[in-house]
Specification:
It contains eight helices and seven strands. It is of the alpha/beta class and 219 residues long. Helix 4 crosses helix 5.
Length: 219
């Protein structure tokens, strides 16, 4: 994508949309991937899609994974994010082909790292994850998936089998022109530290988490 030049005497028009910048091999403990790096000109974020195998165009096994430093890097049990990321990477490799779109700028459902930590502190005092965000004057979910759709379209993906329990991700992809042929559950066994958080996601954010019924004994 080249920068457009405006009318004489005016500033050049700013780039918009998502631009593929680099493609590099990335061997991981889960298998071999291609790390396809993008620049989101609308938000300024650097993004990456981890691609395994030959994707094809239709019914591509896909995960849109929102950045979660505490879960992905530190192994936090406050959420199930780190385990979901690992499970998605394993599933893509087992499938033989697929993509995990890792969405930076989505920390804390889009409110940012420090705000997420403030919300976690409020949850430790008894608020649920929805109440905590609202108490801070922040949206419950500020994530946007336009860049994910743009990355998938750049990769030639027309329809996906979406690994997600969140109906809003499906709705967002369809709204941005990527068809969702199937929504594949990505269910992680809960623990005592995250059961309340997961129940809130089911009851207040409409996540499909039927496996929680089997762990009623957890507080």
């Amino acid at each position: 994508m080249t920068e457009k030049v405006g009318v004489l005497g005016k500033k050049p028009l700013r780039r918009t949309g998502v631009e593929r910048v680099v493609n590099a091999p990335l061997p991981t403990v889960y298998g071999k991937f291609q790390a396809v790096g993008y620049l989101d000109h609308d938000r300024g974020d650097e993004q990456v899609a981890l691609v395994h195998g030959d994707l094809g165009r239709d019914r591509v096994l896909t995960r849109l994974h929102s950045e979660c430093l505490t879960g992905d890097a530190f192994g936090s049990q406050h959420c199930e994010c780190g385990d979901q990321l690992a499970a998605a990477l394993r599933a893509v490799v087992a499938e033989g082909a697929g993509v995990v779109v890792y969405l930076r700028g989505h920390e804390g459902r889009g409110i940012g790292l420090l705000a997420k930590l403030r919300a976690m502190a409020l949850q430790a005092e008894g608020l649920d994850t929805v109440e905590a965000n609202l108490a801070l004057g922040l949206p419950v979910d500020a994530r946007d998936y336009a860049v994910a759709a743009g990355m998938l379209q750049d990769l030639g993906v027309r329809s996906v089998r979406l690994m997600s329990n969140n109906p809003r991700k499906r709705e967002a992809l369809v709204r941005h022109g990527v068809q969702v042929a199937e929504q594949v559950p990505l269910l992680i066994p809960p623990c005592e530290s995250n059961i309340t958080y997961l129940r809130t996601k089911r009851e207040r954010l409409d996540h499909h988490l039927p496996h929680l019924d089997a762990v009623a004994h957890l507080s």
